[in-house]
Amino acid sequence: MDKLILTCPVRGVLKASGKSADGLTPSEEALRVETIRHLVREGYPKENFKIEPIIKKFGSAGRNSFRADFAVLNVPASVVNVSDVDTLLSHSIVLCEVKRDNAGYDYVKHTQVKPLLDFAKLDRCVALYWDNISHRIFWQEWVEGKRIQHEGSLSLLPKFGDKVNVTYLTIGDLERSDSLIGLFERIEDILHQASIDPDKRYEIILQLILAKLFDEHSNDKNPKNPLRVQDFALLGTPVELSKQKMNELLGEAIAFYQCYLPRKVSNVFNLRSQTLVDILTLLAPIRLTAAKREVIQTFYMKFAKDLYKWDLAQYFTPITVTDFIIDVLNPQFGEHLKDPACGSADFLTAAFHKCRDKYQSYSDCVWGSDNSPNAVQIAIINMLLNGDGKTNIRHEDSLEASHQYENQYNIVVCNPPFGSKILEKRKEILARFDLGHEWVEDPQGRLAISTQILDKQETGILFVEVCVVQTKPNGRIGLVLPNGYLGNRSKKYHILREWLLRHCKLVSVCSFPRFTFKSSGADVSASVVFLQKREKVLESARADDSYQFNAEIIETVGWNVGNKRGELIYRRNPSDGSYLIGEEGGKIPDSDFDKILRDMRNSIVSFDYPWLMDNTNEPKNGWSVPIKTVFEDQTITIDPKIYSKKFLTLRDSIMKVEHFLIGDILDLIPESTTKDGKRVRKKSSQLYDYVEISDIGYGEFRSRELRGWQLPSRAKHFAESGDIYIGAVWGSVEKWCIIGDDSKHYVVTNGCHRLRIKKGQEEALIDLVAYLSTDSFATQMRAMARGSDGLAEVPIDAVLQVLVPKIIDENTRNVLRPYVNNLLAGRQSLHATVSSLITHGQLNIPMPARRPNHTVLV
Q: Is the pLDDT of residue 11 over 50?
């Protein structure tokens, strides 16, 4: 198993398994460190701990023994003989048993935990049980000559040296659960043992959740008031009275929450009183609204699927992403935040979690709306579980209501419903939007809105306008947008960017890795754009070219975006692979977000936006780009790739040495033409050697023989000797080849740009071929790709602007020259050489028919 570096308050740095052998639960050692850390925080001196003490010796000469995971003494362990069992027990005030999971809780309680108290000598000694779900204490007292053992929640753990004092639970006594799924699986087990059918179990669990949430929210501002959900068995409350109290609470909760719920819920617990009391023993000590967001989200996704048959995987935006965006926007006291397409309320829960500890009433400032009734229900319940006692989420069409909330919110954040097929066609809606109209060029060549209403517009584009309209002047905006919106050169996206920069100042644009949003159904490359709304709209985006903006490339987001499972990934010690542990004792997600946020705040951009600055005195050496650079492009591209530090510093370093542009030495040859510009048409009966993009590598290529009628529609380049082909889309820019002096009729896919060396520039092929084989070339090409997915195209004018460093050393050129000559002669690889020998009968190897495609098994 993978190793963790654990820091134990008693034993120091340990290396131990982060998870158990099944990979599903924390290891016992990790939980033991967690337990010790909790006791130390509660005031138990770390010098008083004894790890793995023997509590009882059995058998001949005491060869067998009964151990605890650790004991806490009433004196430092170093001043007494802890190897002597009687001495140890004479000073033990805590005896602890730790287990890695909750599955055998009842068995362990009776066979290992309670026996610890049987051996205890001090009347105030408690036994502590700790696993990945339950944290319980046990103690005993003598009543009329009889010894009685009690069990209670961790909140009853006495202060160091005190006795257990049983009191009513308050909101401050409750503990956070790191496994709500595990907790409610235990509750479901109790319901199963009580012979309650599965469908009814989920209804009861919903009732328990609503009653618990209502109780917690009712006492948020009254931390000393006794809660109504109690461990009634511990208090000695009669079971029937306990159920009566819970039914009263449930009735109030249903009256408050029913309007938020997808279906009617009974206001009476339909189960035996004793079963309900048994469940409350587990549930009462836990504060649902204090759980970590990822714990709540994981639980809610499972619970909603079980109860409502909702599969929520497509709804949720990853927590690391929403937290980063909210951290950048930095909401403050009294600032109202809105998401007009809130979905499952992930941005709203992120804002609420960030601000609720600083501003108790921040839930009053969080607003959301969505046009989907199902999404609204999901959002509301998500907000309730995350601790929002009053949800400001509305079921409404944000396009219809766009101007109803004009200039109303300090912060607007949104991941709009984008896609070329998600369209708005209602004329009355389109008429309300600048971006719902046709735009034309005025006599000065500037874009201007006309009175002509479009027939349709992408919904995502209209939502950009909604967000800006509803933001107050000088308010801030965070938008997750596909990179096609930011870089595509077509007129409607150019208009979008022009409109956006007239109404807002660009603060920062950060790209996410491809597939970041795949789980929510968006298989596109996207970026988050941070803006500040202007007080006055500009007549032209170029009217303000005096400021700078930040551009970032996010490479890691905390989970594996390269596969469908999306496993979480964590930071490791590079020397031995052990996981690094954060301040709260958990593994640290491996993401760039902290680094990116720090870079943004430490750029000179932050001087213009006080909300972006931090309180440190670090030098302002973060990355920034003059907005003038954006206006150098006719269509004002704001795709972060071409403004990133990686791309621009690479270009700058090449420009400091002798170099040339690809366009200086190569000419573009259009599709379906010869090098002399004549039109070429395929012949149906002729044999061609077709080169697909997957057949091209670093200078080499393969082909398959097809008749003209078999060629796919993308077979566009009828190759000639000396052609240079370079991958034309983001996902294949590393691919290139040269068609050598060969008699075959090659046809190459249109997924490539076709280029030829200019007359008199033949010697530059050495420089070019060497550079095409490097990541430096691929980096320039990827940065200049335009679009939102793996098929984002690198336009030919961008290819011609790629910088190529010259090879000055003549010895190096002489080393490379034979390789270039081989490429030009058609001997680009061993595979090509062998194929040529077979074709010309010089190599006697039988050749079966090639598979027509990759799906054929043999």
A: yes
Please report, for the domain that includes residue 747, its CATH number. 3.90.220.20
Do 686 and 728 belong together in one domain? yes
Q: Is residue 246 part of a domain?
A: yes
Give the number of other CB atoms < 10 A from CB of residue 193: 10
In this prediction, residues 773-787 reach a mean pLDDT of 90
Q: Which pTM does this prediction carry?
A: 0.80
pLDDT tens across 74-100, in order?
999 999 999 999 999 999 999 999 998
Please state the domain count of the chain. Answer: 3
Print the domain residue range for 94.
Answer: 42-166
Mean pLDDT of 467-495: 94
DSSP letter (8 states) at residue 171: G
Residues 726 and 669 in one domain: yes
Supply 316's token pair: 């949720």
- Structure confidence by residue, pLDDT tens digits, 297-309: 888 888 877 777 7
Q: Are residues 158 and 262 in the same domain?
A: no
Q: Residue 644: how many CA atoms within 13 Å on its side-chain side? A: 21
Burial class (CB in 10 A: 0-12, 13-18, 19+), 110: exposed
User: What string of DSSP letters covers 499-525?
Assistant: HHHHHEEEEEEEEPPTTTTGGGT--S-
122 domain residue, yes or no: yes
**Mean of the per-residue pLDDT values of the chain:** 87
| Residue 487 CB contacts under 8 Å (≥ 6 apart), including other chains | 493, 637, 638, 639, 641, 642, 785, 786, 787, 792
**CA–CA dist 678, 672 (Å, integer):** 8
- How many Å apart are CA 125 and CA 139, to the nearest integer? 7
Identify whether the C-beta of residue 196 lies closer than 8 Å to the C-beta of residue 209.
no
Q: Give yes or no: residues 713 and 823 share one domain.
A: yes
Alpha helices, H only, 558-644: 593-601, 627-631
Distance CA 344, CA 289 (A): 17
Q: Looking at the structure, tell me whether residues 47 and 153 fall in a common domain.
A: yes
Is the same domain home to 224 and 95? no
| Claim to verify: residue 147 and residue 195 sit in the same structural domain | no
In terms of domains, do 256 and 148 share one?
A: no
Lowest mean pLDDT among 100-109, 163-172, 605-614: 100-109
pLDDT score, position 627: 97
Provide the pairing of β-strand 3-8 with 12-17.
antiparallel
Three-state secondary structure call for residue 727: strand
